[in-house]
């Protein structure tokens, strides 16, 4: 679908000025001399030059061709570029390495001048562009300017030299390098809508210049990790001392964890153990136990596992320890410890006609007019929580919001997220006791529809499903689910059953996890199922097998071989919800 065009052709320039004004009011004390000089010089440029620079800053890469920088509102590209070149912000005809040359040109343009060289290498015009590049790279050609590469190409090469400044401005504004300049445009177009959170003049992501530089450095290290740089080089670049800033320390700890896991996979166990020890990532302790076990240091593994069992950092760690500890007991010759057998959810077995979407096939089979089955997976419980607790989630606490494009608070996954808002969440959940929670959820669904939220997937929710859920799910169950979510948001937002069946006439429901042939329950799914069974919530696991594709089987239909533990079956899809989760 084509997006509408914004009325102001210089909308992107206006957005960039908004960022500069924002930085000037909130980050004046953190801006470097270079950055302050850039802002002052930028604002003095002619509008076409400012617009051209912003076009380049907001596009990917640093190399551009004049013929591809044609914008009606800017006019002549060469005229607009002249002040940028004079300021040193854009270079002309800088040397291009072979990969940059190939990224900047088409195959036909390359062939016009490189055909003789390619022919010497035994390559024809029909050979792919990638093969051309690889063959030429084997020749190790030195970088050269575009006219030296392609003399017949009538074009000018521009190289942006202030991309690092643009990236730092983006980091200061958003507080991360994940969000792009396109957030402005998508918001202007109405593609994304964000909650209006009051922002104090002091709201910002970084309080010291050192924090900004440290974030940027860690981001570069992560990019190098993703590019599979040698571990030794990466380890030398990562700060070994913990940061005072908990936010930065979590990022450092996560990067150390990833490095440690890579070392573990490569069999470098001693290095992995040291890195896990230095990492503050919650999962690091469990990996240390596993590595100690692989090193046959069973006593050390046992001691660490005992400390973890006494105070697990998460349900996931406790679950994994439930498998590791008995194994360590056997290896150490310790007596076996009896453990409680967890409650088992109801089991459903179905034999159905083969389908490309097993959850849809099960929903169609079980759904009835008076008991519709809807595909919800993780969306329904999260949405009910997000709608009821909207005010607590979007409360303007210090450090939670610092620009207009937050889909959720910056500290959503921090350990103290709930604690900082405990009174607010208590007030929200009190509606479950009062009984007016349904009215609050329905009204908030109407008032906030389409606004970005870390819990509400609008495309997977409609008022009918909402009404069925509020009618059939007891408030007591909602409270138990919501409190579990608040205990570990990152882990517990996922793993919920695929389907839910409602009996509105009886005000009851059941949740159904679907497993097709060869599929097994994942750990997070097991934790949710055990949790529901522990609290006597109606939850089932449906195991599906496909019937033989014979004429007899086709004639008999799916109901002939289905068994669902006593629940009447129906072959129609009925009120199955859309699979938009």
From TrEMBL:
Its cofactor is Mg(2+); Mn(2+). Keywords: Hydrolase, Magnesium, Manganese, Metal-binding, Nuclease. Its EC number is 3.1.4.1. Gene3D superfamilies: 3.40.1350.10. It catalyses: Hydrolytically removes 5'-nucleotides successively from the 3'-hydroxy termini of 3'-hydroxy-terminated oligonucleotides. Residues 432-546 form the VRR-NUC domain. Pfam families: FAN1_HTH, FANC_SAP, VRR_NUC. InterPro entries: Fan1-like (IPR033315), FAN1-like_WH (IPR049125), FAN1_SAP_bact (IPR040603), tRNA_endonuc-like_dom_sf (IPR011856), VRR_NUC (IPR014883). Belongs to the FAN1 family. This is phosphodiesterase I. It comes from Salinicola endophyticus. The lineage of its organism: Bacteria, Pseudomonadati, Pseudomonadota, Gammaproteobacteria, Oceanospirillales.
């Amino acid at each position: 679908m084509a997006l509408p065009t914004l009325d102001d052709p210089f909308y992107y320039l206006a957005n960039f000025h908004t960022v500069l004004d924002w930085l000037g009011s909130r980050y004046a004390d953190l801006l470097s001399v270079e950055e302050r000089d850039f802002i002052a010089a930028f604002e003095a440029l002619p509008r076409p030059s400012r617009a051209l620079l912003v076009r380049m800053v907001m596009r990917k890469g640093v190399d551009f061709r004049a013929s591809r920088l044609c914008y009606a509102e800017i006019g002549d590209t060469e005229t607009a570029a002249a002040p940028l070149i004079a300021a040193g912000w854009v270079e002309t005809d800088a040397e291009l390495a072979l990969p940059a040359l190939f990224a900047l040109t088409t195959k036909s343009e390359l062939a016009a001048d490189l055909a003789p060289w390619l022919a010497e290498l035994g390559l024809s015009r029909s050979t792919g562009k990638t093969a051309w590049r690889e063959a030429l790279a084997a020749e190790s050609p030195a970088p050269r300017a575009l006219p030296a590469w392609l003399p017949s190409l009538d074009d000018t090469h521009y190289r942006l030299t202030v991309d690092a400044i643009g990236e730092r401005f983006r980091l200061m504004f958003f507080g991360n390098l994940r969000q792009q300049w396109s957030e402005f445009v998508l918001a202007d177009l109405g593609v994304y809508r964000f909650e209006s959170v009051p922002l104090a003049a002091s709201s910002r992501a970084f309080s010291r210049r050192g924090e900004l530089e440290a974030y940027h450095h860690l981001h570069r290290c992560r990019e190098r990790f993703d590019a599979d740089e040698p571990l030794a080089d990466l380890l030398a670049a990562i700060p070994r001392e913990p940061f005072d800033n908990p936010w930065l320390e979590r990022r450092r700890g996560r990067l150390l964890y990833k490095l440690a896991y890579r070392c573990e996979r490569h069999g470098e166990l001693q290095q992995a153990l040291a890195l896990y020890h230095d990492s503050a990532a919650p999962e690091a302790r469990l990996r240390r136990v596993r590595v100690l076990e692989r090193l046959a240091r069973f006593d050390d593994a046992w001691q660490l596992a005992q400390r973890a069992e006494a105070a697990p950092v998460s349900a996931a760690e406790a679950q994994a320890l439930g498998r590791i500890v008995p194994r360590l007991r056997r290896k150490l010759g310790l007596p076996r410890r009896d453990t409680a057998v967890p409650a088992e959810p109801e089991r459903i077995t179905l034999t159905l006609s083969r389908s490309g979407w097993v959850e849809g096939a099960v929903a169609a089979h079980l759904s009835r007019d008076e008991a519709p089955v809807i595909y919800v997976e993780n969306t329904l419980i999260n949405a009910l929580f997000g709608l009821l607790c909207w005010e607590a989630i979007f409360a303007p606490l210090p450090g939670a919001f610092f620009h207009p494009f937050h889909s959720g608070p910056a500290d959503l996954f921090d350990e103290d997220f709930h604690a900082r808002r405990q009174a607010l969440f208590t007030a929200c959940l009190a509606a479950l006791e009062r009984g007016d929670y349904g009215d609050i959820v329905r009204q908030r669904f109407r008032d906030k529809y389409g606004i970005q939220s870390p819990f509400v997937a609008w495309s997977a929710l409609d008022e009918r499903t909402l009404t069925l859920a509020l009618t059939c799910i007891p408030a007591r169950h909602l409270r138990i689910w919501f409190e579990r979510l608040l205990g570990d948001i990152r882990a517990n937002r996922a793993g919920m059953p695929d389907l839910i069946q409602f009996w509105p006439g009886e005000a009851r429901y059941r949740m159904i996890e679907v497993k097709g042939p060869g599929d097994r329950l994942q750990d997070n799914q097991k934790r949710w199922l055990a949790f529901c069974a522990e609290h006597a919530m109606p939850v089932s696991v449906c195991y599906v097998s496909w019937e033989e594709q014979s004429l007899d089987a086709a004639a008999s239909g799916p109901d002939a071989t289905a068994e669902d533990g006593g629940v009447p079956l129906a072959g129609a899809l009925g009120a199955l919800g859309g699979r938009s989760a």
